[in-house]
From TrEMBL:
<dbReference type="Pfam" id="PF00440">
    <property type="entry name" value="TetR_N"/>
</dbReference>
<dbReference type="InterPro" id="IPR050624">
    <property type="entry name" value="HTH-type_Tx_Regulator"/>
</dbReference>
<feature type="domain" description="HTH tetR-type">
    <location>
        <begin position="2"/>
        <end position="62"/>
    </location>
</feature>
<dbReference type="Pfam" id="PF14278">
    <property type="entry name" value="TetR_C_8"/>
</dbReference>
<dbReference type="GO" id="GO:0003677">
    <property type="term" value="F:DNA binding"/>
</dbReference>
<feature type="DNA-binding region" description="H-T-H motif">
    <location>
        <begin position="25"/>
        <end position="44"/>
    </location>
</feature>
<dbReference type="InterPro" id="IPR001647">
    <property type="entry name" value="HTH_TetR"/>
</dbReference>
<protein>
    <submittedName>
        <fullName>TetR/AcrR family transcriptional regulator</fullName>
    </submittedName>
</protein>
<dbReference type="InterPro" id="IPR009057">
    <property type="entry name" value="Homeodomain-like_sf"/>
</dbReference>
<dbReference type="InterPro" id="IPR039532">
    <property type="entry name" value="TetR_C_Firmicutes"/>
</dbReference>
<keyword id="KW-0238">DNA-binding</keyword>
Length: 188
């Protein structure tokens, strides 16, 4: 990653912690980075372009550094913890005109995490894959929905704790769904 782009992205996140998205200007960014406006426009066409780059880079970094795909909880909880670290920034993005891009990346990160978890579970446990797309969609929608609810609530509750409880509640449900079993057929 280009150091100047990374520096501008880091400053963007800092500014999002301090003020709403709509109040962030190119001038704010270039002053903090100690670069000129032309440097900003060399790398980004505007603030929304920087926002999209920053969200994508953050997403890639969080997945790369935090996700172990052994269990659902080991995939979801680290993401929830990283979201908590940037709660104010994500609230500012969520409440801005750039909300759609944030939701798009939320769906992408949720899909990636869930699909990676399911692929690992299928491979590790020798499970059939014919129901995997259904299970992936249900888990993705659940995880993304929880994050959207958390943002709608002003990030007012402990997201990692909630996600952990959700994973415990869902324990075994994905395996049963992949096997095509109902609760009754497996004695649950």
């Amino acid at each position: 990653m280009n150091r100047t782009k990374k520096a501008m992205s880091d400053v963007f996140w800092q500014l999002l912690e301090e003020k709403p998205y709509s109040k962030i200007t190119v001038q704010n960014i270039v002053e903090r980075c100690q670069v000129n406006r032309n440097t900003f426009y060399y790398h980004f066409k505007d603030i929304p372009d920087l926002a999209e780059y920053s969200i994508k880079a953050w997403t890639d970094q969080v997945i790369q550094n935090n996700c172990e795909f052994g269990t659902l909880i080991s995939c979801v909880t680290p993401i929830a913890q990283e979201l908590m670290k940037r709660r104010t920034a994500f609230i500012h993005i969520y409440r801005s005109a750039h909300r759609e891009a944030a939701i798009r990346y939320l769906n992408e990160i949720s899909s990636y995490i869930v699909q990676s978890y399911i692929d690992t579970a299928i491979h590790k446990n020798g499970l059939p894959s014919e129901n995997s797309s259904i299970v992936a969609k249900v888990y993705k929608c659940t995880f993304a929905g929880i994050i959207l609810d958390w943002l709608d609530a002003g990030a007012s509750y402990d997201l990692p704790d909630f996600c952990e409880k959700m994973c415990v509640s869902f324990a075994g449900a994905g395996k049963r769904a992949l096997l095509g079993q109902s609760e009754e057929s497996c004695g649950c």
